Amino acid sequence: SSPAVARWPAAETPLLAPLSPQPLGVNFKAISLRSPHESSFIPPDTVGDVGPTQILAAANGRIKVFDRTGAMGGLNADIDLFFASVDGGVGITDPQVRYDRLSGRWFVTAVTVDTPNTIVLAVSSGPTIAGSTSFSFFGFQQDLVGPTPNSDTGGFADYDSLGVDRFALYIGTNTFNGSGTSFLGATGFVVNKADLLAGTLTVTAFRQMAGPSTSTPGPYSPRGVDNDDPAATQGFFIGVDSVAFGLLDLRRISNPGGTPSISGNLFLTVPTTTYPALVPHLGMATKRRRLDALDDRLFAARIHRDKLTGVSSLWTAHSIQVDGAGVASNSGGRDGARWYEIRGLDATPTLFQAGTLFDPASSDPRFFWIPTVAMSGQGHAALGSSTAGSLFGADVSVAGRFASDPAGTMQGFTAATATATSYNVQSVDGQRWGDYSATVVDPLDDMTLWTFQEYCDDTDSWGVQVVQLLAPPPATPSGVSPSAVCVGAPSVFVTVTGSVIGGSGFFDPGPDTGGPGFHRLAASVGGGVAVNGVTFDS
Length: 538
What we know:
Blueprint: E1 4-5, E2 24-32, E3 47-50, E4 54-59, E5 62-67, E6 72-77, H1 79-82, E7 92-100, E8 105-112, E9 118-124, E10 135-141, E11 156-158, E12 163-164, E13 168-176, E14 183-192, H2 193-197, E15 203-210, E16 219-224, E17 226-227, E18 235-241, E19 247-254, E20 261-262, E21 266-269, E22 301-305, E23 312-322, E24 334-343, E25 350-358, E26 367-375, E27 381-389, E28 392-401, E29 414-415, E30 438-441, E31 449-458, E32 461-469, E33 476-481, E34 495-499
Parallel strand pairs: 1-25, 17-22
Antiparallel strand pairs: 2-32, 3-4, 4-5, 5-6, 7-8, 8-9, 9-10, 11-13, 12-13, 13-14, 14-15, 16-18, 18-19, 19-20, 19-21, 22-23, 23-24, 24-25, 26-27, 27-28, 28-29, 30-31, 31-32, 33-34
């Protein structure tokens, strides 16, 4: 696939003009380390999601709700206190947030910091959050699910993921021994959603999805996969292969709403990958205060259906080190955001396309890391990440592609923040940055996208930025047939034709059988003409 590239001036400091197919809309800071002081944690583990009327953002140390314009709502809590009824008083880390449009509920998960630790869950009573009292809380000790003792007994379940679909919640973890010095394996937990909404916790564990040795490959840092299709029948975990680069591993969950079972590894060969490099940034105290880009793990995964083609696909992304041509290289000198679209999920999964957002500059390039990606119902996609470089502070990057763009390409990035400060919080080369980010589809219109990303919001401080990415506008009307209708005539079908300009287009997400429905295509006419209905053609 051909990489999408763009060059930027070396002295760039202001926000770039929008280059993304999705222009910026609402754009605000939700949580901060110092300005104002809301958390003491490094890194923050940036997550969030969007519901019909609210936005829920979380990080280590804080959970907050806003309306869809960014105005503060009724929940602004220390996240340890939020989970106090189930965390055993030891505190929590690695929060995850999802709004499930199929059930109209919010789900928040995390892990406690003791060993062996507990996975905690919060479930809202409905789509509107008034405060902590809007949630019911649950928890289970990770090594006590299923037969005991087991491969995870006495271990610490780390770096949890969360996927939600019609039938279940999918929580993936990496499990380490009590001292954190040895990888015990990757585990997936399937939580029955119907039981959970009824107040009962029913959990199935699938241990050793990836084992501790090269003889037991599987998905490392398995991501539970989101899927908002009301007709979905199977669930998934996905991760990079624990043994080999250039390989993704899927595990399919059958009967997730009953007695779940798991498939073997479904291997997908992808373009060459490698670990990302540490990230330089403007204002480093020394050349040994770079930012941590973690490893080649995936950061989130989401299945969505293109409502125009009817094709469902899985989108996911991770950070890798690349050279000036965007090819994975251990000496490439920059990090790129590699993304994937995977199809054929109900049969034999295949890689449909892959691309890499990167800077081809010969010196002092930008880095892109901790990316997440999502596709809208129109088939357009957006990718959010952090970005920095030796000439650039740590900011939020957003990039996108139209469904009609050549396969494997992503248009140039837009900076959603403009930091004027530097980040030198830790006296180490590889300062902890973020462990997560989130990019999601708006549950109301299936067109708008949102991303939750980390940036340097003040001197030695991180901030969690919420960015709305607006859908392309409707096609520009260019013709109407018939062009006139007699006064007093009965109902008449009128065909409106539009011109596509810069990715614009008519769109209707369809009836959403079995789901709550989306906002539908509408039309209005002046002069006292009543519109009785709209039929979407293309």
